[in-house]
Write a structure and sequence with these properties.
Residues 29-93 form the Metalloprotease TldD/E N-terminal domain. Belongs to the peptidase U62 family. The protein is of the alpha+beta class. The chain folds into 3 domains: 9-223, PmbA/TldD fold (2-Layer Sandwich); 229-248 and 357-449, no CATH class; 254-345, no CATH class. It contains 9 helices and 19 strands. It has helices spanning 13-23, 79-95, 128-143, 212-225, 243-256, 259-264, 324-330, 362-369, 417-422; strands spanning 28-44, 47-65, 68-74, 148-167, 172-190, 193-203, 235-241, 284-286, 309-313, 316-317, 338-339, 347-348, 353-355, 371-383, 389-400, 403-416, 425-426, 436-437, 441-449. Strands 3-2-1-4-5-6 form a 6-stranded antiparallel sheet. The chain has a 5-stranded mixed β-barrel with strand order 7-14-15-16-19. Helix 3 (128-143) packs parallel to helix 4 (212-225). The radius of gyration is 24 Å and the shape is globular. The two termini are 45 Å apart.
């Protein structure tokens, strides 16, 4: 997401594309021009592994013929390509099935400028040499940790982009953003047993990016700490999900309050609007206006106004996440959560969401639980969206008396999310690194499948 940017030479394309689509038989149309420039450099075990550069422009046209719609995209901006784009889109829409809830966003729902400056663009350009040096420094810091045997790669990247939306309803606005990222993954080894750890960070401004030495050391230390991991017997015990991965427990909640899921009846929370799903005092908040936020935006991908709001307030579901189509199907108004790529109609996406923190830091949660499993890695989560039954493979550490005893691997945790959400205890260690953030989460009794 991004803040407004001055016009570019390609900007006159979109209004003319809308005009030609209407003349060709469309009743309504919207056009998107997405421009992106990116550079990524990767190293592995002190050797340069890859350099990737991208410069792209993608043009997308969505048209409606009555309640029938079609979306066509092209990477060419030539006059001939635009003509074919209009012809194909209108022809496809005429043959598409009717969607009684289709259509552009209502004019009364559209965002109106001037839009706030969310500080999402840093004009700094990183050279291949600078990115390579950063990646090498990250990897070197990780490899310097005792027990780390080799690297699976370190990557440093920079990108910037611009996105403009024009609709036949009169919406016309652009936004721009930058992104700087750093990631690394390494292997620690002892007696032929390997343990992996990795982490990545991304920010809007280079000055906010974690230093390569800091990231490298953290990755190396996490890998080394896993040496000697063992299985544990199957049991039911308290489980704490570290803040780095705790947001993965909240993603199914966002999916379950997504308007399209509720409208289709494929949500385990479809009948719970206005009902308690989290403990009293716990809220899930969404703020599209957070400065430099990875999910910040002055308007959604349908041009609809956005607002800071509680998704779950004091434990109670306060709203569904709605785009235009799902809002119409449910007899509601869009909440400004429409999300679009270059192909297909709009889906739904959160902006900057976070769970409100609690009182205890991670050590405090471990002391509160006394004994149990601290989860620091998760893989292969499985969810039954209709029932909320959930499971995931995890690794981490067994703790007793609030202190870590030994690392744990190859175990599975499982439960019903409706039940788990009702009993979660948030920690105080909330950090803002992604578009969805959470403090560490404690659950008092979770089924653990081990040896």
């Amino acid at each position: 997401m991004s803040s407004p940017e001055p016009a570019t030479p390609a900007d006159d394309i979109l209004p003319s594309l809308i005009e030609h689509a209407l003349k060709a038989g469309a009743d309504a149309a919207e056009a998107i021009l997405s421009e992106r420039e990116a550079l990524s450099v990767g190293v592995r075990n002190s050797a340069l592994e890859e350099v990737e550069r991208e410069e792209s422009r993608d043009l997308s046209l969505r048209v409606f013929v009555g309640r029938r719609q079609a979306v066509v995209s092209s990477s060419s901006l030539s006059a001939d390509a635009r003509r074919r784009l209009v012809e194909r889109a209108v022809a496809m829409a005429a043959l598409a099935p009717e969607d009684p809830f289709g259509g552009l966003a209502d004019a009364s729902d559209l965002a109106v400028g001037p839009f706030p400056d969310l500080d999402l663009h840093d004009a700094t350009e990183r050279s291949p040499e600078a990115l390579e040096a950063t990646a090498r420094a990250t990897e070197a810091a990780a490899l310097a940790i005792a027990g780390v045997s080799r690297s699976e790669g370190a990557d440093a990247a920079w990108s910037r982009g611009r996105w403009r939306l024009v609709t036949s309803e009169g919406f016309d606005a652009a936004r721009q953003h930058s992104r700087f990222s750093l990631s690394a993954s390494v292997i620690a080894e002892k007696d032929g047993v390997m343990e992996r750890a990795g982490e990545g960070r991304a920010v809007r401004h280079l000055s906010d990016l974690i230093g390569p030495g800091d990231l490298g050391r953290r990755v190396g230390e996490r890998a080394a700490a896993k040496i000697g991991a063992r299985k544990i017997g199957s049991t039911t015990a308290p489980v704490i999900f570290e803040n780095r991965i705790a947001a993965a427990l909240l993603s199914p909640l966002l999916g379950a309050v997504s308007g399209p899921s509720v409208a289709r009846g494929t949500s385990f929370l479809k009948d719970r609007l206005g009902q308690r799903v989290l403990p009293e005092g716990v809220s899930l908040l969404d703020d599209p206006f957070r400065p430099r936020g990875l999910g910040s935006t002055p308007f959604d991908d349908e041009g609809v106004r956005v607002a800071a709001r509680a998704i779950v307030e004091d434990g109670v579901i306060a709203t569904w996440l709605l785009n235009t189509a799902s809002a119409r199907q449910l007899g509601l108004r869009s909440t400004g959560h429409g999300a679009r790529g270059s192909a297909g109609p709009a889906g739904v996406s959160v902006h900057n969401a976070h769970l409100t923190p609690g009182r205890n830091d991670l050590a405090g949660l471990m002391a509160q639980a006394d004994r149990g499993l601290l989860v620091t890695g998760m893989f292969g989560p499985s969810l039954n969206a209709n029932t909320g039954d959930w499971s995931a493979g995890v690794n981490g550490f067994w703790f007793e008396g609030g202190d870590i005893v030994h690392p744990v691997s190859e175990v599975t945790v499982a439960g019903n999310l409706t039940d788990l959400y009702a009993r979660l205890v948030p920690g105080a260690d909330l950090e803002f690194h992604d578009a969805l953030n959470s403090p560490s989460l404690l659950f008092d009794a979770v089924a653990i499948a081990g040896k």
